[in-house]
Sequence to fold (244 residues):
Amino acid sequence: MGRLEGRTAIVTGAASGIGRASAELFASEGARVLAVDRPGADLAFEHIAIEALGQDISEDAGPAAIIARAVAAFGGLDIVYNNAGVSGSTPVGDTSDEAFDRQIAINLRAGFRISREAVPHLVKSGVGRLIFTASIMARHTDNGLVAYSASKAGVVGMMRTFALELGRHGVTSNAILPGAIATGMTAASFVRDDIAALWAKKAALKRLGQPIDIARAALFLASDDGGFVTGQALGVDGGLMLRV
Fold:
């Protein structure tokens, strides 16, 4: 029996990278999964337990539509993995209001609104799980990451408040802080072998992370194995930040 047998899940940003790996892993462990990404994204999956939904999570009506679709399809909701996100690198002086607001809207605000909409169903579940993809840049930063670091630090703070308020109902809330992961969002950075090698060398494990590395952490938090873990920001970075 799989670790998520009989449970239902939403995974956002599911068309590629961490989201796709997580949706597929959750399904292989017995969950029925609503895989969410932008309209027009590649949401074709071979696993019959995965249902696709093209929905912009930042739209006003997006969160309600996502939760309603999951509940209608599955009859309830146990796990919400807020994974969708965007990044960008621009010096502070060149960061426009629009660019800043976009990262906050997608990386932080959308996850809040989806989670808030899901709360009644997660409470009813009895084994409710909230999971967020943050970043090691929630604790650190780099040049050009004013909007990204702000949004991911906000995710961690938000996650902890959900954990505090929902713990009495048996709902856990945690964040994963990936390091340098070879995903669709970072493909442009790591397409050059020298850049990829540089980041791999920085990690204690001497390699870039892969989407499945993060998906396995999400599975732990979503399953009974992580049932006594809440309010935690779990670094999954291959030891990248040990010397910072």
